Amino acid sequence: MRIGLVQVTQETSSFNPTLTTLADFESFGIYEGDEILERLPSAGLVGGYLAGVRASGVEVETVSIVRGAARSGGRLSADAFRFFDDKVRVGLQQAGKLDGLVMLLHGAAAAEEIDDVEGALLRTARKVVGPSLPVAMMLDHHANVTQEMIDHCDIIVGFRTQPHDQFETAQALTEHAVQLFAGKIAPTTAWRKLRMLTHQEQYLTSGGPMKILFDRARQMENDPRVLTVSPFPMQCWLDADEGGWAMIVVTDDDQELAETFAEELAELAWSMRNEFQRTESVPVDQAVVAADQADGLVILSDTGDSVLGGSGGDSTVLLEAILRLGIRGRALIPMIDPVSASRLVQAGEGATVTLELGGRSAPFFSPLTVTGVVRAIAGGVLELTDHAETEIDMGHTVAFEVGPVTLLVTEYAGVAGIHPAVYRHVGIEPADFQMIVMKTASNFQYMAPLTSIMIRAATPGPTQSDIAALPWQRIPRPCFPMEALTSWRG
Question: Number of structural domains, the chain?
Fold first, then answer.
């Protein structure tokens, strides 16, 4: 069996005006051909795909086309989109006869003038491979499922957890894909699109309404007629013309059952819509004071500047509050700011520097003038043993001390300070601090062994929890919670 393999993953926040370029993909590695399997044999999506092939027991030749992954951010530049679109088209033209195609995508990527990157890539693939070749697609569960995605693939599987189970989902998709390509199953899909968005604070699948929804999806999969069930609580900062939650149920040739379960999931999600709007974040000053007074190391979640949700990572809101309020404990803050990183590297270790820091990526933020000491400088590639991206490039990386705050100022986003290894890379031990500002609202798992408390700060930004206040232009209206609706159908 010959299977084509494509991975292109990026998550877009429409409210981050900074474009995602090829350089952002290159910081995580753009690979082609055999290099994909050689560089990524055991981790992340490609590792999960290979595990699925092994579990299938079928002899498979993988025809690797292209792999590109970038951190969440603004829309892809037109050049970046064309690059991957061309790679998919030319790669499949040169691939020879295939038995099937596996597409490992995100589902919430947009580009300049294109709201649906994944649908566009699928359309390109279909033009090459024709209408009859079976196509299996994996999506992040924050995908914005569109009609074009449904039209151009035969089976869709979404992540089952938040934080995401990338390896496991890619493995599950691949096991289904091999059965599909061998003609052993006949996937039948039903889906429902909801006029609903919900903020990030109830995204975790370990509790609350999201756990109820995802637990029900797993229960449905216990039915032997069901292949996969995927709720898609859409990335809530994607302003796209087909935006909204979706539910997908795929059965083995049982359309009626698929329709019944898809309808049930949509009704269940809608019944909990107000619970999904419950917030836990507190005003900025209140969050900082509570973190400073807490016993134990505190995660201070910068909800409005979630790099893993598409923000730029250079908000100065929490930094300003910490300095103004005169906290007693030490704080650790990541800051993605290539201009400042370059300036600090030029100054050198031990230098005292005054500069305008951060606040460049989006109109929600402003630069903050600070004076501090360059404590350490590093750069180059960082290897991670327990992350989906085993190798990242953060570019210039500087430990910059400003009063009680140690800033990790980096040229590239990397993993946005969510992993202790990025701090240890410059000689900083996160456990030595009172609070760690994290540019995420949900991916705390790597710091969890060090911390005991998490406080969400209601910061403004491209990923803020107050989604109703964002300047929506393209999302279908009316849409909950921006408008009061009595039905998920609008």
Answer: 2
Q: Which of left, alpha, beta for 296 (phi over 0: left; psi -120 to 50: alpha)?
A: left
Put simply, whether the predicted model's pTM sits higher than 0.85 gets the answer yes
Rounded alpha-carbon distances, angstroms, from residue 153 to 46, 121, 272 = 19, 11, 30
For residue 137, the enclosing domain spans 2-276
- Strands (DSSP E) found in 172-235: 187-193, 226-232
| Same domain? 217 vs 307 | no
End-to-end CA gap in the chain: 45
Question: Is the domain of 25 the same as that of 42?
Answer: yes
Burial 371-399 (b: 16+ CB within 10 A, else e): ebbbbbbbbeebebeebbbbebbbbbbbb
Instruction: Provide the token pair at 15.
Output: 């409210």
> Residue 387 is encoded by which pair of tokens?
């992350």
In a domain, 172, yes or no: yes
Q: CA distances (Å), 444 to each of 205, 302, 329, 449, 454, in order?
A: 13, 12, 21, 10, 9
CB 462 within 8 A of CB 313: no
Q: pLDDT (tens digit, 9 = 90+) per residue, 126-172?
A: 999 999 999 999 999 999 999 999 999 999 999 999 888 889 999 99
* Residue owning tokens 């082609």: 32
Q: What is the DSSP track for 310-326?
A: T--S---HHHHHHHHHT
Calpha distance 24→21 (Å, rounded):
5
